[in-house]
Amino acid sequence: MKKVLVTGGAGFIGSNFINHILKTRDDYFIVNLDKLTYAGNLENLKEVEDNPNYVFVKGDIINRELLDYLFDKYEINHVINFAAESHVDRSILGSEVFYRTNVVGTAVLLEASRNHNVDKFLQVSTDEVYGSLGATGLFTETTPLSPNSPYSSSKAGADMATLSFNHTYGLPVTITRCSNNYGPLQFPEKLIPLMIINALHNKKLPIYGDGMNVRDWIYVIDHNRAVELALENGGDGEVYNVGASQEMTNIEIVKLILQILGKSEDLIEYVKDRPGHDRRYAIDSSKIQNELGWKPEFRFEDAIVKTVEWYKGNRSWWEGIISGDYLKYYEKQYKKR
Ligand code: NAD
Ligand code: DAU
User: Fold this and answer.
1) Which ligand is nearest to the CA of 241?
2) Contacts of 269 (CB under 8 A, 6+ apart)
3) Is the distance from the beta carbon of residue 154 to the nearest atom of ligand 2 less than 6 Å?
4) 27-75: per-residue pLDDT in tens?
5) What's the confidence (pLDDT) of residue 329?
6) Is the pLDDT of residue 337 over 70?
7) Quick one: which of 236, 240, 220, 249 has its CA closest to 284?
8) CA dist 77 → 29, 46, 59, 323, 327 (Å)
9) Among residues 155, 139, 61, which one has the least CA distance to residue 103?
10) Which residue of 31, 105, 241, 288 could cross-link 61, Cys pair, CB 3.0 to 4.6 Å?
11) Cα separation of 20 and 78, whole Å?
């Protein structure tokens, strides 16, 4: 039995991971440790809350005493670190909590994992650690790290700490670096859910700059299958890029969402650019494909329709979030920037 500490499991990707694993595997026992920040939501885990192979613990990855208690109590032998502050725009407004959770939090989790001799520590990282591409080329695992935002620099710091624990102590770590995810349960501050929800309300859709920035999109289930494979078969000290080779400009995505919803392009509004906005991300995922046999299963044109349908069918999930004070406060701060 794998006894897995999943951190950040109440967020977008972590909750999709837990729901997927507990549906498809009976050899995983999952302890979900999540601080329940603004981005954590236990609603995301309704379908597993009574599963005997699942336990939720509210807490912070930076709390070493709590970690030691959980490792001992549940005899944890695997760790997947999804927990992070994940939104670039928020990191530009204020970076401290990003370095606290993403760098120091990861370091504390690494120390606890080392002390408890885990069989694998899987760090869930991002393609943003590589910086920005020009019009051509792809990020490979040997592309030098060159992060540009407080968010991406904090994730790069976490990656460096993770690899150093392998080099120095022999801790069996693996890192996945994935491109932009989309799908159900994504917090409506990120491009795709924000645009769907604004369009459903006939609110303006704010496009930063000229709308020609490129992201390489992957459906969240494809990412999570890569995490599962990397946890089980990933080499120690190895990094795997994860991407579905589905590059799109932001304006293309927004027009597609409007088309799926039958809404007018007049809703589009070009706004001030994000400071330091990375121009293009694109991933070469041949290493994980060749070495671990992973390949993406969802095509963008189908999965984006599924995603739009999910948001249309789950209004109560996001209505609670967008009416909350916290999101309103953030929007106000953001407009002042
Ligand atoms: P998210 O913001 O939706 O969820 C983050 C979760 O972490 C939340 O449930 C939050 O409560 C929890 N958390 C935050 N600080 C914590 C702390 N100190 N202790 C315990 N829990 C804490 O993020 P996401 O989009 O699901 O991303 C998950 C991971 O995947 C992150 O590490 C992110 O960097 C990485 N990633 C995300 C994407 C993407 O497109 N969203 C792509 C590549 C990698
Ligand atoms: O590449 C992986 C990363 O993708 C993850 O590591 C991050 O956690 C995740 O948040 C995401 O970062 P991005 O900054 O690429 O995602 P975001 O959804 O914030 O923005 C996607 C693009 O859309 C980006 O070019 C900025 C633009 N954008 C975003 C918002 C929220 C807009 O034009 N308007 C908006 O309102």
Assistant:
1) 1
2) 204, 205, 206, 207
3) no
4) 999 999 999 999 999 999 999 999 999 999 999 999 999 999 999 999 9
5) 61
6) no
7) 240
8) 10, 25, 19, 40, 37
9) 155
10) 105
11) 17
Which of 96, 100, 31 shows the shortest CA–CA distance to 63? Answer: 100
* Cα end-to-end span (Å), the chain: 49
Domain locations in the chain? 2-181+217-242
The SS3 of residue 222 is helix
Structure tokens at 318: 């996001």
State the Cα–Cα distance between residues 187 and 107, nearest whole angstrom: 26
Phi and psi of 249, rounded to 5°? -80, 160
Q: What is the pLDDT of residues 154-185, one digit of tens each?
A: 999 999 999 999 999 999 999 999 999 999 99
151 is catalytic: yes
Contacts of residue 100, defined as CB under 8 A and 6 or more positions apart, other chains included, come to: 62
Question: Does 3.40.50.720 match the CATH number of domain 2-181+217-242?
Answer: yes
What's the token pair of residue 187? 């917090």
Q: How far is the CA of 129 from the centre of ligand 1 (A)?
A: 15
> What does the pLDDT look like over 277-291, one tens digit per residue?
999 999 999 999 999
Determine whether the shortest distance from the Cβ of 105 to ligand 1 is under 6 A. Answer: yes
Any idea which ligand is nearest the CA of 17? 1
pTM above 0.90? Answer: yes
Q: Where on the phi/psi map is residue 293: left (φ > 0), alpha (ψ -120 to 50), or beta?
A: left
Rounded to whole angstroms, how far apart are CA atoms 218 and 298? 8
The residues, ordered by sequence, that sit 6+ positions from 1 with a Cβ below 8 Å of its Cβ are 27, 28, 29
Give the pairing of strands 247-249 and 214-219: antiparallel
Distance 191 CA to ligand 2 centre (A): 6
Give me ligand 1 centre to Cα 84, in Å.
Answer: 4
CB of 34 closer than 6 A to ligand 1? yes
Strand partners, 92: none
